[in-house]
Amino acid sequence: MRSAIRALRTLARADDGGALQELAISVGVFASLLIGITELGRYSYYSILVANAASAGVQYGAQTLETADDTSGMQTAAENDAGTGVLSTTPSASSYCECYPSPGTTITCSASPGCTGSNHEVYYVKVSVTGTYNSLFHYPGLPTTVTVSRTAVMRVTQTL
Asked: Which sequence spans correspond to the domains of the chain?
């Protein structure tokens, strides 16, 4: 009986510190996961901000034919929606016309119909927004900054 107790005590002493080593490894792994999840969440949030800015600009331009020609108004709407420090460049805004139902045939928008046959002109606005995401930490093999670009296109509610 005494030899069995002595053997258990020897085993218990040999295991001293093992739990501490397991804890150290586990904390390291969980900390890495937490940092990675945080970075991914920040990047996703930043991408949503950039996409929302493009949508805000295009929604402003798609209201009427007058706002569709107001490229500075679309740029301002995108910048105001994004807030400070999100966009790295000035948003680009443009408008164009296509013959419907023949998409892809871009034509010059004019007061007189530019489409032939049963096609009719459809007016579109387009806003492109670019921002630069900066990560919290430097990771070997990964860039510290990532360019995020989004483009939104919407049909204008009125046609020529």
From this structure: 2-155
